[in-house]
Amino acid sequence: MIDTAAFLADLDTLRKIGEYKTGVHRPTFSPQDMESRHWLAARMAEVGLEPTIDGIGNVFGRHTGPGPHVLAGSHIESQNYAGWLDGALGVISALALARAGLPVDVCAYCDEEWHFGAGFIGSRSLIGRLSEEEIDASVGTFTGQPLREALEQAGLAGKPRIVIDPARYKGAFEMHIEQGTQLENAGLRVGVVTGIVGIRNYVIEVEGKQDHTGGTTMAERKDALVGAMRILHAIDMEFPRVCGERSVWTAGKLVLDPNAPHIIPGHATINFSFRDIDNAVMDRMAAALERIVQEHNRRDRCPATLQLTARSEPALSDPAMLAALTSAAGELAPGAWQAMPSGAIHDSQHLARVMPVAMLFTPSIGGISHHWTEDTKREDLELGMRVLHEGVSRFLAA
Amino acid sequence: MIDTAAFLADLDTLRKIGEYKTGVHRPTFSPQDMESRHWLAARMAEVGLEPTIDGIGNVFGRHTGPGPHVLAGSHIESQNYAGWLDGALGVISALALARAGLPVDVCAYCDEEWHFGAGFIGSRSLIGRLSEEEIDASVGTFTGQPLREALEQAGLAGKPRIVIDPARYKGAFEMHIEQGTQLENAGLRVGVVTGIVGIRNYVIEVEGKQDHTGGTTMAERKDALVGAMRILHAIDMEFPRVCGERSVWTAGKLVLDPNAPHIIPGHATINFSFRDIDNAVMDRMAAALERIVQEHNRRDRCPATLQLTARSEPALSDPAMLAALTSAAGELAPGAWQAMPSGAIHDSQHLARVMPVAMLFTPSIGGISHHWTEDTKREDLELGMRVLHEGVSRFLAA
Question: Which class would CATH give A4-197+314-397?
Answer without folding.
Answer: alpha beta
